Every structure is written in C-alpha cells, then in structure tokens.
Amino acid sequence: MIKQTSKREVFEEIAKQVAQGDLMFPTGAQVALNLRRALDDPECHILTAAKLIQAEPLLSARVIEISNSVAFNRSGREITDVHVAVSLLGFTTIRSLAMALVTRQMAGQSKTREHQEVVDRLWEHSAHVASLARAIARHVTHVDQETALFAGIIHEIGGFYMLSRSEEYPGLLEDDFSEWLEGGEVAVGRQVLIRLKVPQSVLAMMESFWDGFLAMPPVTLADTLLLAEELATVPSPLHRVDSKSPGSELRASIEMVIGEETLTLILAEAAEEIESLTRALKF
Amino acid sequence: MNEPSTQSGKDYERLARNINPGGWAIESERPISTLLGSCVAVCLFDPKLQLGGMNHFLLPSSTRGANDDVDVILNGDYSMEVLVNALLNKGAHKSRLVAKAFGGGTIVSSIRMAIGERNSAFAHEWLDREGIRLVASDFNGPWSRKVVFVPNSGEAFCRRIPTTQANVADVARAEHEYELSMAAQKKSAEKKIDLF
Questions:
Q1: Can you give the residue ranges of every domain in chain B?
Q2: Superfamily of domain A4-26+107-280
Q3: Quick one: fold of B9-195?
Q4: Strand partners, B40
Q5: Distance, in angstroms, between A137 CA and closest chain B CA?
Q6: Which of A203, A283, B56, B119 sits at 20 to 30 Å (Cα–Cα) from A18?
Q7: Which of A27, A56, A78 has its CA nearest to residue A283?
Q8: What is the pLDDT of residue B3?
Q9: Average pLDDT, chain A
Q10: CA A135, CA A228: separation in Å to the nearest integer?
Q11: Interface touch B113/A219, C-beta < 8 Å
C-alpha cells in the first residue's frame, strides 16, 4: 500500500516520465490515436474518413449514435450510414469523437474490478461534462460548441492515463484522491496533453480550468467547462475525498442571470439535448 | 454588470486586497478577495458609478439567550448595512445596486451544515427585503471558496476548494476565531449594561 505522502511522488514521477517522452499507451488508445492523426490531415477526404471510421467498430457505433442524437439531428430522420453521419457531423466533431476513443482507451485493459469501476465512472463523468459543456456553450456562453465538447472529452485525460499506470503502483487507487486533486491532476494532465499535441489554445484553456476560477456569469471556454464540471450530476471518481470530511451528498446551489433568463431555466430547456448526447458518448 | 475584461480570476487574485471574516471593503479599482467556509460574502456593485464593495459575515451559531435570534439578525443586518451605507456615502444609489453572493459551505462537519445554509438564506432574504437584485450566487455544498471581485466592472470569480486541502484548516480556524470574537463582544456589551 502506498502511503498518502508518497502518492504525490508517484504522480510527479508519472508526469516526469510523460514529459520525457515516455508515454506508454495501451494498444487500443494507440490505434485510436493513429485514426485521429489521419483525420487531422487537412487533405483527408470524407470518403477516406468514413472508411477509417468504419474500420473501428467502437467509433463507428458512436458516430452513428451521435448523428441520431437530439443535439445534432433535429429533423429526427434516422441515420444508419457512417458516410452520411460524417457529412452531418463534420470533421471537427468526428475528430472530437476520435479523441473520445483515445481518452476512453487510454486507461487500458482492466486489471481488477476496482480499476474497471473507476475507469467506467470516469468516462461516464467525462461524457456528462462534455455534453453539458456543449449545451452551455450553445445556450449560455456562446463560445464554440464543438471546442466545448472536445474540452469536456479531454478534461480528465490525465486521470485516464494515471489509471493505465496504476497497476505499477499498488494501492494507488485506495483511500482518497486528495493528492491527485492537489497537484497530480494538473501535473500529469498537462504533460499528457502536450505529448498529444493538442492545440495551444486548448492547453491555455485547460490551464485556466485547472486554476478553477469561474466567472459569474460565465464568459470563456474555461468558464464553460468549469460550469459544466460544477453542474455535473455524475461526479468524477477521482474527486473522492477523505471519508471523514463532509460528504459529497451535500449539494450546492449555483445560479445566475444570463440575459433575462436564469441558468436553471436555460439548462432545463437543454436537458433533452444533454441527455441524448451523454447517452451517445457511452463507449 | 459591465463588459468583462480579458484578465482571468487568477490574474485578479494576484492583485487583490484580501478581507477576513467580519471585514468589508470598498474599492474603485483594486480587486477584493476573500476565503470563505461557512461564511457568506456579498459583493455589491453600482454599474453607473463603476464602484463596488464586498463584505464577509457569519451569523452567530449559538442560541442560548432569550434575545439571541434578534442578535443573529442584527449581526447580519449590521454587516450588510455597513457595506450599503459606505457605498451610498461614495455616491452610489441603492436602486442601482446589484449583488453577487457566495459561501455558506460545510467544511468541518455535516453537523455544521445548518450554519452555512442559514448564512446563505440570510443573504437571500436580506437582499430580497431591500430590493437589491441577486444576479449570481454559488452557495452551500462541501467546499470552501475563494472569491475575487473586481469593483470597477462588477465581475466576480469563484473557485471551489475541496475540503481536503491544507488551507481548509486555516479557513475553519479563522471563522471559529471570528465567532469567538463576536461572542466576546456580546458578553462585554452585556457587562456594560449590567453596570447601569
């Protein structure tokens, strides 16, 4: 078992290894990453993209599901073909979905039930935050919706990577995650994002997100992500704190006036959109 | 409130003047910050004058005497009225004031949950009674909070801090000391009355 004091050292060690280029991806994540890089190519034709996606069953299922979600398909006309789905969603969303697959696969094959549970709940949380972030961008902050979705998808990527390495450090998933919250999340997350070559603007946004200051009312992309995180009803399993401290059952009340409406009213109207997108993102 | 600036909450925090439990401040330019546990901070802003202020108060938790309910209300009233009056003295108009309010968290134990909720409920009721519009709030839950207010734009930033972090102990201690000082002030006032 790792003592509380040494968990910090483990996180620092993992971050240092990633910074030095020692980023050990599980096989599934590597395949997804190659796919994402191919989609990043500005010369990539839509037919090529559709073929690449069709070769990856997990991704093609999600592409079809999302193209049928209320968030993207308001006409309600059912889409069953990957090529049509790619045309509807566009390359930006497709690239976000490829990144979702990278993130989801990053935790690797489950070694124990405990590991699997944490990974599943972390993805459920990420999907919920990503859907909320897109809805907040669309209805509240009016920043780019697809970047907000992307930000939600990657905001716990450091956590997925840490989970992929947890077998090397027995006891890392035991007790609480206060050491993760107090520095590990930022140290590992920052290095993983740098190694994955996410755009500088997204990295800067994540730095503001990690600073944690939410403007009231929210303005920026980082505010959009922070608000989505704060409103998420599916908590991150990595935000588990000391069992002796006041519990997570205590709910906060966050409210603000945006224009002439309140946040509660706006989100109530966007609930179906959020629900459909969260469901579609479940890998 | 006015157009948001390009600086982040973190940038403003570096420049801010900090206020402690029981404190208040009015500034025309310099940001004001405070760290909250179960206390509440109310930020008031006059958009026309581009002037704002913040207080940081805690309603006493003990109710042992016959007049304690009145004391509790007077304490909250005092904190709010000092801030409003100071703004009015600088030329603000009460009808133009808008509020943002934060805090009322539960950071020490769930038993003390009622204290935070009572503080946030008081802020809601007081602003409602005085006709001051509450345009943004983040109340209650298991967090302490760092709040930064920019008085010339009305912007407010709130960072929730999980209860595990080292400074939670400092917040809890500062609030406890403030609570004890309020009790001591009350005792001293009662003694003075006895002399008559």
A1: 9-195
A2: Hypothetical protein af1432 (1.10.3210.10)
A3: 60s Ribosomal Protein L30; Chain: A; (3.30.1330)
A4: B57, B103
A5: 17
A6: A283
A7: A56
A8: 58
A9: 89
A10: 9
A11: no
